């Protein structure tokens, strides 16, 4: 079972293969934003990796980050918890001015992941 460490919050055991955005909201009880419902369209679910950053990313994540000209972070909706990792949550509901964090993302990554090896 992978360990997810959230900076300034704590360490959590998460189900292997669970989406990071869901591990943050369900297991760590973080008010992580996910305005597009986890479909890699909005970049509100951004996290920074302190340790354990995956060496691959989905094409959807790569395209979204490039289109929004965002760097030095990853989209938690496009990452599976398949190893130990430590993250810093960037986008939280608190202080965002939004009414809610967004619709709950589905259990499986959307769109279907196609891995891109160069981050």
UniProtKB/TrEMBL annotation:
It comes from the Bacteria. Pfam families: Fer2 (PF00111). Residues 95-109 have a biased composition (Basic and acidic residues). GO terms for molecular function: iron-sulfur cluster binding. Residues 94-119 are annotated as: Disordered. Residues 2-93 form the 2Fe-2S ferredoxin-type domain. This is Na(+)-translocating NADH-quinone reductase subunit F. It comes from Gimesia aquarii.
